[in-house]
Amino acid sequence: MTPSPYPWAHVWRSLRLFAVDPVGLGGIVLRARAGPARDVCVATLPDLGLPHQRLHPSLTDAELFASMDFAATLAKGQQIYRQGLLHRPAAYHLCMAERCHSQLAAKLTRSLDEGHSCLIAFDEGAEPEETLAPALADRLALRIDLTDLRACDPPAIDTEELIHARTLLPAVQATASDISTLVHLSARLGVSSLRAPSFTLKAARCNAALNGRVSVETEDLEIAATLVLAHRATCLPAPEPEAEAPTPEQPVPSSALDSNPDQDVLVEAVRMALPEGILPHASPRRAGATGTGAGDARIAKQRGRPIASRRRRPDGRSRVDLIATLRMAAPWQKLRRAAEDHVSVLPSDICLKRFETQTERLLIFLVDASGSAARARLNEAKGAVEHLLARAYSHRDHVALIGFRNDSADVLLPPNRSLVLAKRRLAALPGGGATPLADGLQCAGIMAGSAHKRGMTPTVILLTDGRANVALDGQRNRQKATEDAEHTADWLRASKIRSVVLDTAIRPQKALQSLAHRMGADHVALPRATTVGLTRAIETAVHT
How confident is the model at residue 286, as a pLDDT? Predict the structure, then answer.
């Protein structure tokens, strides 16, 4: 096995720094599918001085924090608990970390914030947007991406050097100038979290300790910046221009006194660590983004992700949670038990299982194909719909297409995931004629209501310039057409149908902004939209 030396050198260096101070650095995000490369990386991880504990995204609160010891509880007649997985400090191994839901992420972040444990998150996401929860990723200093790497022979681990570095680490000092440099560097790279410069400083101290130094040098800062800040950067600024020398009559500005020439050196080090062309396509992940096409969360009785059980009377459809039921009955056995050979369970003790499921999402594209919009926007709308359909399978989205022109709206594509059928229907979408906006909204509302009854989460995406001129009764009356559209928008809002309005007019229309407000929808003005622009706007609106 002959790997490319530079990427693997980055991996080995990250693992060595992490081994020096695993708790201080929080942990590592290891992005890789199961395979030889990941096995080599895990096998090379030195002894962290902490017990290893495996975690899974489906763990319950009873397993994480505490659970009842039934044998001891029944014997003593009082609740006896055994410790949960997060009770003692450990190096947690979280498999399938990209599937970690927000509740589990919050519990893990709390455990990490206590400063006694660390986390190795195995990110096995197949798509770029399938990543670790932002709050959890922010608390892990290092990130290793093995996506394009082949397995290689790991280097030998120098245990004595590692022990010496851990002993020397408390004595390693950094100057106030070093701290100021890292804070300003994080700001220039577009990193908003204050944990980033703190982790960078800790990594620099670890590197200095590995090299037997008691003070942080520029080399340590460069290595730490490439390992901690490079994957967090959202922009790479140009070098700051040199300030003109002040005249004797002018005082030296304070900003000139605070400037540090090492910042440009560190920026260049981060630039060299980034894959070519990655930043122009990167954008900060918005809070609440799920990264999938999953719709709303709903409570189910038969299947889904297990959540806390509740005491309920059996209804013939829900499943009884035997463990939770025994947990409720166990403390009362000394009072209830008439004989010593059975457990007494009352109806009030019965707990029913509950599950949380994610509904499928339906994107209903309501496209204005009238004469005022068709020439400029119809082709772009077709391209955006086709692009999103191509990604529907991986995002688990269903897509429907409704076009409105002349006197009515037509369902051109019923809810489905067929890319071939979608291309045929899109190619057949004509343009020109009047604008029956109210009928289009009504048709989309009826389809959304039907989808909601089938357990889906519909979202209506309206692409129009807002120039309605056909009423619901077919009259060519602009005033009545506008009133009908407003009344239909009020009905959509009352029906709690999620919607987005993309204003494709050359100049944003106030009437369309008012219509979006009545629909309870986001209004996005796209006067010069292209297929790529429409696609990005739609994905930003519906995936957050």
Answer: 35
CATH topology of domain 361-542: Rossmann fold (3.40.50)
DSSP 433-493: S---HHHHHHHHHHHHHHHHHTT-EEEEEEEE-------TTS---HHHHHHHHHHHHHHHH
In whole angstroms, how far apart are CA 422 and each of 261, 399, 411, 434, 537? 56, 9, 12, 24, 21
Same fold, 5-157 and 361-542: yes
Structural fold of domain 5-157: Rossmann fold (3.40.50)
The reported pLDDT for the residue numbered 25 is 93
What is the domain partition of the chain in residue ranges? 5-157, 296-357, 361-542
| Phi and psi at residue 274, to the nearest 5° | -85, 140
Residue among 127, 128, 107 at smallest CA distance from 119: 107
- Going by pLDDT thresholds of 50, 70 and 90, the confidence category of residue 356 is confident
C-alpha span between 151 and 139 (Å, rounded): 28
Structure tokens at 390: 């191509």
pLDDT in tens, 268-278: 666 666 655 44
Q: CB-based burial of residue 262 (10 Å sphere; 0-12 exposed, 13-18 middle, 19+ buried)?
A: middle
Lowest mean pLDDT among 177-181, 234-238, 338-342, 458-462: 338-342
Measured CA to CA in angstroms, residue 514 lies from 376, 485, 510 at distances of 23, 11, 6
185-210 average pLDDT score: 90
Structure tokens at 517: 């407000």
Give CA–CA dist 29/38, Å, rounded: 12
Specify the pLDDT at position 284. 38
Query: Phi and psi for 406 in degrees, rounded to 5?
Result: 55, -115
Residues 6+ apart with CB under 8 A from 72: 80
Closest CA to 362 of 399, 402, 334, 328: 399
